[in-house]
Design brief:
This is Ubiquitin 3 binding protein But2 C-terminal domain-containing protein. This protein is an alpha+beta fold. The protein has helices spanning 8-26, 30-37, 39-75, 100-104, 200-204, 239-244; strands at 117-120, 124-129, 146-150, 175-182, 190-196, 210-213, 220-226, 249-257, 263-265, 269-270, 276-283, 292-296, 305-311. The chain has two domains: 12-74; 118-311.
Length: 313
């Protein structure tokens, strides 16, 4: 019988060799361990990051200090001080916002305040005659701009192309103008009717249309407030319609002299924002036997025509 020698120690040695072999296969190589433990590689990968972070922090601190200095300097300047008495008119450049200087200047400097006002021009401007209550003048070119007053209608072609028959020739015949204005919604509740006629010298240098005859100083014109607060239809208004609509003359506001170089205006009266206001311009009893004034509204300077002025209470 053959005998076998069994040694436990030799078996352990074999297992130890196998375990060591497996561990060696799992552990990093010697080159990798050398690389991790090498001081030179560690300096190259870490040092630039620390340098850039430190540099950025220093730059950020410097910028914040500069901005803080600018803010403190600006706040302490008299120009930005809320208690400063420096007028905006003393600044090198005037404000680009209209009226800002009057709003922001202190009470000590606000010695003058220009009142708010607005100029409105007629929305309706049409002529009617006492000779023929049904006659209206829609055929007049640009009728919303024509203003014509006469206390005698002639048989020849009148101004602005209006033609009358011989039967209409009478000193009692009057041609009047109905004007309607609309008060703008700006809270300006005091109104006044006015007229302005440039001088003959100023008119000669323009293409504006104006004519007066009879009275050397121009025809005297009565301004009547009409009792009608609705919107007129300029294409159908006539003396007959005025009667049917109960558009009677309510109050005589003033008498204008509409000669060259004249300016006239009625006293102020209360008006409601957004309301319609109707007036009749007629030949006045102060005129001579014959008088006529005719013009075409022109808002360009020098202004010619009639207007309504609104102002604050």
């Amino acid at each position: 019988m053959a005998s076998h020698n069994y040694s436990p120690l030799s078996n352990l040695d074999d297992q130890s060799v196998e375990i060591d072999s497996e561990l060696n296969s799992l552990l990093p190589s010697a080159d990798f361990q050398a690389t991790r433990s090498s001081p030179s590689h560690k300096v190259i990968s870490v040092t630039p990051s620390i340098f850039y972070l430190g540099f950025g922090a220093v730059v950020s601190i410097v910028i914040n200090l500069i901005l803080l200095y600018i803010h403190v300097s600006s706040s302490s300047s008299p120009l930005y001080s809320t208690t400063s008495q420096v007028s905006l008119r003393d600044l090198k450049y005037s404000s680009q916002y209209i009226g800002l200087d009057r709003v922001t200047q202190s009470a000590n400097n606000s010695t003058y305040r220009r009142p708010l006002h607005r100029i409105n021009y007629p929305d309706v401007l049409v002529q009617i005659t006492t000779r023929n209550s049904a006659r209206r003048y829609p055929h007049i070119v640009n009728q919303t701009s024509n203003f014509l007053i006469s206390n005698e209608v002639r048989s020849t072609d009148g101004f602005l192309g209006i033609s009358y028959s011989v039967a209409e020739r009478s000193t009692t015949t009057q041609l009047s103008t109905i004007a309607q204005f609309r008060a703008a919604d700006y809270g300006l509740t005091r109104c006044s009717i006015g007229s302005v006629v440039p001088s003959l010298r100023d008119l000669a240098n323009t293409t504006k249309i104006y004519n007066s005859a009879g009275d050397p100083q121009g025809l005297h014109v009565d301004v009547w407030k009409v009792a009608f607060d609705g919107e007129l239809n300029r294409n159908t208004i006539s003396l007959g319609q005025r009667s049917s609509l109960s558009m009677s003359r309510q109050d005589k506001l003033a008498t204008f002299s509409m000669g060259p170089g004249s300016k006239s205006r009625t006293p102020y009266f209360p008006c409601t924002s957004g309301g319609w206001y109707t007036f009749e311009f007629t030949a006045s009893s102060e005129s001579k036997d014959f008088g006529e004034v005719a013009l075409r509204q022109d808002q360009a300077l020098p202004t010619l025509g009639i207007y309504m002025r609104q102002k604050e209470p």
